[in-house]
Each structure stands twice: as structure tokens, then as C-alpha cells.
Please model this.
Amino acid sequence: MRPVCLVTGSSSGIGAAIVDQFAAQGYDVVVHYNSGADRAEEIAATLREKHGGEALVLGANLSQPDAPFELVDRTFAHYGRLHVVVSNSGVANYVQDEKGQLARYRFSETPIEHLDKEMDRVLSLNLMGSYRLAQRALSKMTELAKKERKPAHRSILFITSISDIAPESTRIPYGVSKAGLNHAVLGAAFDGGPHNITVNALRPGVIDTPLTARPSGVEDPATGREFTVAETYGLMAEGGAQPIRRIGEPDDIAYAAYAFTQIPYMTGQLVAVDGGFTLPGNFANRELFLQEGLRKRQQQ
Ligand SMILES: NC(=O)c1ccc[n+]([C@@H]2O[C@H](COP(=O)([O-])OP(=O)(O)OC[C@H]3O[C@@H](n4cnc5c(N)ncnc54)[C@H](OP(=O)(O)O)[C@@H]3O)[C@@H](O)[C@H]2O)c1
Model:
């Protein structure tokens, strides 16, 4: 019988690539969405056609307290099996200002009414949503393992971020949510181990997705147009900010996500998949790398 994998936030970006990877490897999957029901249905139809397995579509706003528990329960109620859960849903901390524009403030300049809103936004989904989801997944997987004479290898993977250690003044709440989640991995690994359940975190660097298509606050000196986050970090990568001179694609993370869930002897690990961005020595020079990237572009 085919193994089963639930990937939260698989209606977009990294999650969509991960769910495709698992379906390609012979898993029956759950494509989960929050607002993108149509996108999720389309992704599931493509997976069925491409890979032949089952792709169940489930919606849930995982920042609501009961939703993560219900999502795991609905997955198990449908398939009666559960082997891998990838907790991937996540948002940036930016919230809209009174004009409806996405507001990006440096920490010291954040209006007081935005401080708690930004933190609530990321804690309710990135931290609490994942925390609750993993708790229910681990308890369900443990229950299943206890019924097996030789428990199958099962795995829970949190998609956190290198923002746990890579500092940026406008996204402190995001980093806090991801750093907090990393700690949950360490504790959960202790409970999972005796039942052959591994628990790890994959920490992506900057990946080209809708999340990084937002404005970065850096202008193109040639045109005055504001670069997106993906473009700014792409320039920095070209300028030498990381040994692999490009930002990541969703498939870069999908390959790693699949691999990390297949290693029965790796647990409690927080692994960066970031083209080397977080190697020591890089942070202080980011402005220099951006300028070098721009210079190289202008020479092309
Ligand atoms: N892109 C990067 O550079 C990068 C770097 C490091 C870490 N990450 C992490 O990777 C994960 C995926 O990010 P991405 O870049 O692929 O972003 P994305 O394309 O914006 O996708 C985010 C996903 O999260 C879902 N989501 C949003 N709000 C939700 C809610 N309230 N409840 C449940 N699901 C919700 C979205 O569902 P709908 O679209 O259906 O609403 C979507 O499927 C996130 O945890 C992010 O923090 C991304």
C-alpha cells in the first residue's frame, strides 16, 4: 500500500513543489490550502495525472486553534495511514497599513499599533499552527507505531527558515516564529525516536516564490523601480553573498524535504538548505554584495 504524506500550504510555492515530489515518489498525498482552493484543486488534478496516486484536497486556516488538529484527523480518517507530515504553511510578518498597503518598518520605527499585529500574525500560524499540527501528527503516528510489531519509519518535517539566525530589522517577528519552532523539533525528537518517528527542521534560504515577490525596499539605480525580495537577494547572490551564486527554486527545497524524511537515523536536526548563505562571514557584507551584484549586472 502506498505511504501517505500531508504537506500544509501545498497550494503555492515551496509546498506545491514538495507535494509534487512526494507524489512522484509514490505517496498518496494531501494538498492543503488556506485561501487558494482553486490552485489546490488544479495542483491535485495535475498530480493524479502525472503520478497516478491519490491526491486529497483539504482546506484549513491553520492559525485557528482547532484547525491543525482537525487537519491531521481528516487526513487519517480518509486514508487510515500516515507516514510523513511536512509543516510548511507560513507567512511574513508584514501587515497592511491604514491605506491597505503592506507596511515594512524597521524595528525601531514600527508604530506601536503594528508591533503586536505583526507578532500575532506570525506566531498564530508559523509557530502555533505548526506546533499544534506536529503535536497531533506525533501522537497519531505514535498510536499507529504502537500497534506494529516492527514500526515503520515515519517522519515529521518543519519548514522553518534561515531567518532564525539571519538578522533583518524589518522581520524580527518572522525570525522569532521560526526560531521558536526550531526548538519544538528538539523536544519532539525525544518522543518520536522510540517509535521510529524522526523529527527535523529544514531551514530554507531565499527561494523564488510568491512570498519573496513582495517589494524589498531596494531600488534599481538604473530605473528607480523597487526590486522584489527575490531580485534583491538574487543580486546579492550574484555578487558573492553565498557560494552558490543564485537564490533557490522551490524544487531545491522539495528534493531536500523528501530526502530528510527518508533518513531513519537523523532526528532533532535543524538543517539549512540555503546555497551557503548562512556560512560564517557573510552577514556583515550584504550591502557590499548587493553593490557588487548591481555592478556585474550593469556590465552584462
Ligand atoms: N520563500 C522563501 O524564501 C522562504 C525562505 C525560508 C522559509 N520559507 C518558508 O517556507 C514556507 C512556504 O513559503 P513559500 O515561500 O512557499 O510561500 P507562499 O508561496 O506564500 O506559500 C505559503 C503557503 O502557506 C499557506 N498559508 C498561508 N496562510 C495560511 C493559513 N492561515 N493557514 C494555513 N495555510 C496558510 C498558503 O495557502 P493559500 O495560498 O492557499 O492561502 C500557501 O500555500 C513558509 O513557512 C515560509 O516561511 C520560505
Remarks:
- The longest strand covers residues 197-204.
- The chain has one domain: 4-209+249-279.
- The chain has a mean pLDDT of 95.
